Every structure is written in C-alpha cells, then in structure tokens.
C-alpha cells in the first residue's frame, strides 16, 4: 500500500494522514511558532518578537498571582490523584454550573450533570465535531472567525467549516460592518447543500472573535431559531463573556433566555482562557441539556482530561465570588478599558479605521490603506513585514476574512506595551509609503463611537463622509484609500506614544501590586525605562 | 443523507460516528462506570463497590500528600498561565529528559527536544496512531494487553489492533506461560498481511500489563529487531518501570541500550500514573529521536495540553532526586512488596494459580476453576458475579486474552484492604460450587516462586504435577479442573484474612504519616475498625 509518503517534504516515517497533520500550518500557528523561537524579553532578548497576535490577557498576572498562591490552592486528597469522571470531577461541574447560573443570569439553576469540563475549548470543538458529524460533514461559520477552529474540527475529526462571509462594509439597514444576519446564514446553508455537503451545525461566537461584536439576546435567538428550523446544532462560544469593559453595555448569554428555541441542539462553551486570563490552565467547559451528547463526549474525555489538582484550583476560584466580583472583574475591566482606549486612541490619531467595541482583548482594524493592492498576497506581505520587524499581529486571512487588509490587534498586554516603548530606538521606516490608488480620503480614520447599546447603529465611519448605504461588498469600497501615514510611522508612533502614554502613568500604581517579587522587579525596571 | 441515526439505541442528535462512540463500552469502562456510581466509602457508602479492577496505586497517598503540599508546588508565573509549546514547557521536557536518563540508565544524556509531554499515555497512543497510521491501518499487539489501548487507537484515529495471542500454558523452551517470542510476532504479522491489513507498528509493554512480566533488555532488543526487519514502529510502554519491588530484579529500559536497532522507529512511553501513583495528574511522556514524529505530535498537542501549573509541579517532583530516592521509591517498593506478598499468599492458600512477578500493581490470576465451562460468557458471568457482590476485578476478555478464566487483581490498595475487612460480615456464599468437569487436580494451586532474575524459568506450576511440555494452547488444557474452594470461600477468605493480616499490622505506622488531617482521621477510623 502506498501512503503518500512520496510527496514533497513528506516523512517516510509517517502515514499520509500523519504527513498532512505534520505539514499543516495555519498563519496563526506559524506566527506563534516564530514568536516561540524569538520571544521578546526585556534583558535576555530585547530584539525579540512582540506578540500582539495571540489573544491573551497579560494585564492581570498580579491579581492572579495573589489569588492562585493562597493556601486553599495547595490542596491534595487521594481522589484528586486518581482517575475520575472524564466529564470532570463532580465538585468542579457543580462549581461551573453555579458560576454560569450566576454570570449568565440563568432564570433557573443550571445543572452540574449538563456540564462537561475538558482541557480547553479546542478539545471541546474537536470532540463535538467527532460526535455530531461524520467524516467530511461540515459546520457553518460566519467569517471572519477565530481561525484555529478550522484545525480543531479538522485534525482529528475530519470535519470541515463552511464559510458564511460577512461584508466589511456596513449594510443599509443598521450600518453595522460585518453584520451577521439570518439571511446570510440561510444563504450559506443553501450554498452548502448545493455543493452536496452535509451541514450538521453552526458556530456562533458572542462576544465575537475577531470582530469583538456583541450580539443581543434577541439577535442570538433569531440565529438559534435558524438553527432549529434546519435541525442544526448551535455551538455557542461565549468565552469572552466577562471581558465586556463598558459598564453601560450588558452581555446577555443565551443561557439567560427564558427558553431556548432548541435546547437539545444548543451547546454553550465557556472557559478560563480569556475571561480569567489563563490560557495556560487548559480549562474549557460545555453546557448542554443533551444527554446523548454528554455521554458521547464522556467517551472521548480520556483524551482531554484535566489534572485533579487543577480541577480543585479552578473550582476554588469559580466559587470565590468575593474575589471575582470585588477584586478581579472590576480591576480587569478597568485595565482592559484603559488599554483598549489607549490602543484605539493611537489608531484614531493615525487614521486607521477599526471596529470600536467594548469587549474582548483585541480590536479589528482596517489596514487596507497599507496594501499595495487588495489581495491576500499583499496582506500576507504586510503581516510578514510586521513579523520581520518583530511585531506579531494576526491578519484577516488567518480568520478567513473575505476581504484582505484587516488585522486583529491584541491590546491586553501591559508588559508588552512597556517593551514596545523600549523598542522605539529601533523604529525605522518599515515599508515604502503606499501609492495612492484611485481612492478618496475615505476610510482613513474612524469615528470613535463606543457601543452604547447592543442594538446601536455604531459603525465604521469614514472621515468627512457618510457611510455608503450599500449592502454589498464592492472591491473598490474595500480598496485602501490614500494613506495618511506610512507603515513605519504607524509602528514608530505607537512605540513613541506608548512610552509617554498618560494611560501608562495612570495605570501604574495598581499594576504593581503583584506578590511575586520577580514579576514586581521586572515590572519596575520596565517602568523606569519606559519613563526615561 | 442518512447517518445511521435510525439504529437501535441511536440518538437522533448524533452522527453515525457519534453514536458508535457513545454506545461503545468496553468491560473495563463499564466496570469503572458502575464503580463510579457506587464507590465504596467507609461511612457514606459501606455497601459500595470495592475496586480491585483499576490499576491504581493507593498505598502512598501519605507520601505524595507530604511532597505535593510543600511550598515549591505553589508557584505561579505569567508563562505558566499563557499558551505554551504544545510538546510541553521546555523546563518540563528538560526535567523529563534528565529523569529518564537517570532512571532508564541511558548511556548518553537524553535530549529535551526528543520529549513530548501530553495529558496521559492514552493521548499519546491516540496521537501516535493518528500520525503513523492512516484510517483502518493496524498495529500489532500481543494478547493479553491493557485493553483500553483499543479505544485509545480507535476512537479518534480509527486504527485497529491486530492481536498476537500468547499461550497461557508454558511452552517447552523455558516454561514461561504467556511467553512472547519473535516467532509469534512474525506469525502475527504474516496473518495480518494475509488479511490485507497494513501494519504500521507493534506495541510492547515492559513491565507488562496485565501479565506483570518483565522482559530483559536482550529480549526487548530481539523484539525491536523484528520491528526493524519489518519497518514497523515500536511503541514501547514502560509506565510500570519503577514498580519493580524485588531488589534482586533489575528492570532494563530500552533506553539503557548502547544502541537501538531502529532508533527512528522506536518510541518510548512513560508517565506519572503508575510509577508515581498519580493517574489523576494526567501526565504521559514520549521519548523519540524521530523529529518528524515530534513535529506531527506537536500539531495535535493542543488537544492534549497540560496546565502550566501542573507542568511546574511535575518538574519539581522529577527533579527532587532526594525525595524520589530516599523517600518515595524505597517506601513505595516496600509497600508494594508487602501488599503483593499478602495478596499472593491468600491466593496460594486458596489454590489459585497466578503469575508471580515482582512488579506492577496487580497479579494475573487463573480463576478458570470457577468457570462452569471454558467460555468467555462464563468468564463474564463470573466477573458480573463479583461485581454484584461489590468487588470490581478485570477479566481476561477485557485484555483480549485468548483463554477464558484469567483475571487481573490489583493489590496496591491500602485503604481498600481495610474496607474489605469491614465487609466481612456481608460475606456469603456467592456462587454455587463449580461442578467437577473432566479435569484432574491440576492447576489448582501455584508454586510460589519469585522471579529471581529476568531470564529465570519461573512459571505457573501445578500441584503434584510437572508443567505439561506443550507449546500450543489446547482447549482441554485451559479447562478448569476440580476446584478446591467455591467462589464464596474465595471472597470470604480474602475478607477475613485481610482484617487480621499481619501485613496490615506491620505496615501501619508508616502509613499514618500523612499531613492532611482529613486523610489521617479517615485512616485512623478505618484502622480501628479493621482491628476490632
């Protein structure tokens, strides 16, 4: 039997599938690997890569350190060291159910039996795909979306994503760019069927990654009704639910609904990675009323188990409402808000449009004016240019965005901001100023409107020009227009202003409360340098 | 499209694959689930199931508690809370490499780059199968074997095991029952090819599960040479390597070889579950020089990640040679030896044959005399009978043993022994005495020979009769012979003697050293009751 071992770059030691897995490389993974080999470090590697591409919240390690080193975290009993229920220990599922009941404002107490805990949401995606889909089946997803889900569904479970592209220009109805509608979902489903695919579900993210969009419960219900009409599973990813940092905005979980359109096909994901800034703790949770799904997931759970000791620690944390409500959440929100405000202020001052949303750890920014032409090759060149200059961002094609030139920029990085400041001396002209290509002055800057309410008509506005009232995405509209600055100015300005940032000054005292002397020392050194 | 949803017991919410996964139930899993629903507990559930089926070492929680609650375990830094290398943090891979270099007696320092750490060896089996095999490919394995590997290879990766049955009777050469030979491997490979299967590798366990057999390095090298001749990957599972409790016996890892026959196709597995009695900590490690394999595994690593905090703790533990060498290993071995000696003494006194091996946490015992007839239905009935009477064992068919009537009995359970003692009053006649069916008095007891050296001719001897010098497995030979005791006597005797066990008295003082007051209290109560 031949096994595809003969292909270029293939290993004779691996199977066809193994070679395919080994050689698979998404842009997000590639960037992260490069970052892994050349991480910026203040003293050890000052010329290393600064990571604004990975969605991690690096603003709250002091708070986490303080809590995670309290004595209740160091608990051992025999059952924690033994094999356990592959859905997670009962005590943890109980804690998760209570936590979600409270923070998702569920009208009725959620049940521990409906909770499955695994080592990350990627594992949950993989498992769910394996049990609701057969190989080669597909799941609908609006684009852009968090690109790693492609691998989560494909690598083990051989399930495809079928893309439902969202327009980057606001449509005529409520002027929201990248607006998700039931019509688009229906249209996508129809297309998939025409292509002969079996669609088993739809993935919905709220708050959205990478858009940071917050959908109202009413909107979500209409999406869930679409799923019900078509007997699709709805996988609702709410891993950013506690990152909403504008007090005037309320996130509404689908679990807050009095009743779900199709509870047996609605599965809600949450985890510690984003809301509690602990991607490294490997905790993803699923809430579903579907017993069959829970039973099937339990069978795969042995591949995705979480150490008993970690389960204990997470349960302690989730049960500590005082810490969550009085310490962590308010401070985290304050810091996220300040960091976002600083970042968006910089983008504004440089005339870079972006979606202004008070949630998540990143902004979705329109760098189309820096592309020589509107192509994904050009976008990739720009991404590589940033990487060459040791700044890792995430470009739109990594999220399967249908229009080139959009980037996700993570702002939730305190130490990184300071490090950027240090880098200022290296700031040089990185790219030639893009030639003005048949554009107007449109789309160069943005109206800094905060999202006042979920259904607001906030939008990506253009300077001196109303948003064009077109529902479709014209190539010309997506072409970058006359750039106000060159790319080196973008980077240089960011670096310069970060160092002298008012935000930095204001934010400092609270940030230095960490108990770990090592962290505190590093912080102090960085701070002094940044203030020079 | 139909999806098999219509089958009996199938869920309309799951795919064909999903239903197959959900409805899949091995005997080991079934037993564990029943145990999970009805665990014995001294006060809360005194009539619950006593677990002698799951291979866990429950003898050393006091030692582990003491070590795992030391201050160095409670360490937090930002990198532990962030995404990391999916092969495991560098500091942990470094610690594993040093640990294996020392305890496997590697002639050269093992390299951290050749180490992959995942959340358990099941995850490693799943990943390795995915990347060295295509769907429907197969891997050779001698039977009996640790049955869960079937699911590890099949559930996600759709890889089969091809069985190479070992004879339960000693063959003519060295009188070792269940003897593994190159000839049997060659024969199995030939059969597999004739059946049109693509065989990609062979799984070798040393010390063996469930046989507890210890293979010499010389033997292992001949197996590895077989693999090399046939271009098969050799997956060498050494997870019980530190459980050898007879000082006169030395375990030799394949990593101690001066050179391996085919280093690019030799992959050595180890983990914390057995040797450090921490199945719940979810740590499996792989050592391989094959860079392609490591790269491919890294791609699947996101599904099998270990929390950074746990990685730190495990690294601390593995680096603490003083604790390992001076405290844990000697005491663990002493307790394992005592527990094994007690268990085998009981089996001997009841005339139950077993493989007498100074390693692992279990004995492989011949309960054929309790079968009404030599069939797997009968074996299952016996297993269910034990379970009805609240004793969970593992029967041979769960390990794909080719002859019915063999059981794996886990002895490494201190608390459990005490609990069994409490149960004595419930001891009743469980089964009718088996009718004498055409057998002699053979095979009713065993000669209690300890394994004096790796190549010793220790064997499963029969009372008043030499081992029959036949290399093949005849059905008649495997029929149970005239039983000396009924099954209720077996259980009753075990329970009675456990309570009055001399071993218990001797072992007590060291066992009560735990720092956790809760554990200590429970222990004291159990002890008092057991001594009544």
TrEMBL record, chains A, B:
Ranges of residues in domain Aminotransferase class I/classII large: 55-413
InterPro entries in the cross-refs: Aminotransferase_I/II_large (IPR004839), Ethylene_sulfur-biosynth (IPR050478), NHTrfase_class1_PyrdxlP-BS (IPR004838), PyrdxlP-dep_Trfase (IPR015424), PyrdxlP-dep_Trfase_major (IPR015421), PyrdxlP-dep_Trfase_small (IPR015422)
Signal peptide per UniProt: none
Gene Ontology biological process terms from the UniProt entry: amino acid metabolic process
Family matches, as PROSITE patterns: AA_TRANSFER_CLASS_1
CDD domains in the cross-refs: AAT_like
Renumbered residue ranges of the record's region Disordered: 450-478
Keywords for this protein: Pyridoxal phosphate
GO terms for MF: pyridoxal phosphate binding; transaminase activity
Superkingdom, taxonomy of origin: Eukaryota
Family designation: Belongs to the class-I pyridoxal-phosphate-dependent aminotransferase family.
Entry protein name: 1-aminocyclopropane-1-carboxylate synthase-like protein 1
